[in-house]
Amino acid sequence: SSSSSSSSSSSSSSSTTSSSSSARSAVVVVIVGMAGSGKTTFVAGLQRHLREVCGKRVYTVNLDPAVVSLGYEPNIDIRDTVDYKKVMQHYRLGPNGAILTSLNLFATKFGDVLQLLEQRRATHDVILVDTPGQIEVFTWSASGTIILESLSASLPTCVCYVLDTPRCSRPVTLMSNMLYACSVLYKAKLPFLGCFNKVDVANHRLCQEWMVNYDAFQVRRPATHRSPILTHSLQHISDTDT
Prior knowledge:
The protein is an alpha/beta fold. The chain has a domain at 26-170 and 190-202: P-loop containing nucleotide triphosphate hydrolases (Rossmann fold, 3-Layer(aba) Sandwich), CATH 3.40.50. Helix content is 55%, strand content 14%. It is built from eleven helices and six strands. A six-stranded parallel sheet has the order 3-2-4-1-5-6, sandwiched between helices. The longest helix is centred in the N-terminal third of the chain and has 22 residues, at 2-23. Residues 25-169 form the AAA+ ATPase domain. It comes from Toxoplasma gondii ARI. It is found in: Cytoplasm; Nucleus. Binds to RNA polymerase II. Small GTPase required for proper nuclear import of RNA polymerase II (RNAPII). May act at an RNAP assembly step prior to nuclear import.
């Protein structure tokens, strides 16, 4: 009887462990943002923090074909598959067009990337995906849609939009970022996080206040040019929609 009870308990424990292991899955965080917002540096810092402070197992993917150097060692790198400079020469494209075309070419092989990520589902906690500064990849390009939809269909996925805090201290720049962020949000339809970067250079609290306080934004909005009139209208719509 004692032996039977022990065996039953062991079987139950094994079943529970197996169940929790199969249910466990790495979370994908896709880092997007305007050019120069510091996405790559952000990814390097976040990876280091997650590993050293939080004790998480992190897997990194670089999707920027034109980046010269990274502050981290990517596990998957688009540069190993697509030669950005050859794309420029072959298709006679400028820098931006070559980046978009490189992403389109890479998207046709994204199934191979998904297979690798699926294998890391239970062995890693977080998968960080670094992206190029050409935000149009995720606002209207087919490659961005394919990448986000493929990731979210296979793994829990969220989008982190990185904002350049010093630049966003100008109302027009902040509103431009908000429009791009909303565009990515509504197109991706995924959990979305806005992150103010470079807060060691400029305080982000003013930008936060502008995002939630229409009157505060109105006070700082310059009235000497026509573009702020559009900014004013967009902020009002954004505030109402929120």
